[in-house]
Design a protein that fits this description.
This protein is α/β, with parallel strands linked by helices and 144 residues long. The chain is built from 8 helices and 5 strands; from the N terminus they run βααβααβααβαβα. It has helices at 10-18, 23-32, 42-51, 59-67, 79-86, 95-104, 120-126, 134-140; strands spanning 5-8, 37-40, 71-73, 108-110, 130-132. β4, α7 and β5 (130-132) form a beta-alpha-beta unit. α1 packs across α2, α1 packs across α3 (42-51) and α5 crosses α6 (95-104). The radius of gyration is 14 Å and the shape is globular.
């Protein structure tokens, strides 16, 4: 059983589905091979669902990722934790991502959102959770 836990935001899930040969796609492959554990919340999955059509992706592809537990769901963060995370990001709509990663007690939070999540402020406050892009994750995880 892998011990490395990775919390994904919607951008990484969508990117992985749209581009299987990219860094986000390799995350899905690594989870399928049981090398890492990918985690998200229902709020994040709802966000993914809202953007599937824009990228011409099928909802059945997302359902497969969930049904096969390639992406595992944990419960949504409570409003109190989300409110505490609002001060960490310029976009309060992203606070649930930070709160979810904290409550899931993961090793990594991966995002493609350079403006609101991949910031020094977020990285400092979420430590010891490492906040990376998929590319940074793969650069730091040469063992895969």
């Amino acid at each position: 059983m892998p011990s490395l836990t990775v919390f994904l935001d919607a951008s990484v899930i969508l990117s992985g589905m749209a581009s299987p040969q990219g860094g986000s796609g390799f995350l899905l492959k690594a989870a399928k091979q049981k090398k890492i554990i990918l985690i998200a919340t229902p709020l994040i999955i709802n966000e993914v669902n809202r953007h599937l059509a824009k990228l011409k992706l099928q909802s059945k592809q997302l359902k497969t990722l969930l049904n096969r537990q390639i992406i595992r769901l944990v419960k949504d963060p409570d409003e109190t934790t989300i409110a505490r995370c609002c001060r960490l990001t310029a976009d309060p709509d992203d606070a649930h991502v930070l709160a979810g990663a904290i409550l899931a007690n993961v090793n990594f939070l991966l995002s493609l959102d350079k403006k609101h999540i991949l910031t020094k402020r977020v990285k400092k406050h979420l430590f010891p959770i490492r906040v990376f892009s998929p590319e940074q994750f793969w650069q730091s995880s040469k063992s895969f």
